[in-house]
Amino acid sequence: MKIRIQMKDPDTMHDAVAEAVSEQLQSSGLPKDEQDALCEVRCDKIRAICAKWFRYSEYLTVEVDTDAETCTVLPAEA
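Predicted structure:
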């Protein structure tokens, strides 16, 4: 049996991307103002990639196959 589950959280993806990029830049040695500017640019690029799976940056749909015991993230629907 295949079950589709749609999850909605308006902040999770946005916050996770910002946190990951910020952590990466902290060890860069750049001044804080440069880190902030670079963080914004990198976050925009990563969020654009995530748009393949997150509709409106907040909806994520997974499909659980109970027969195969797998879970797949489905592409975002337009």
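Summary: The chain has one domain: 2-73.
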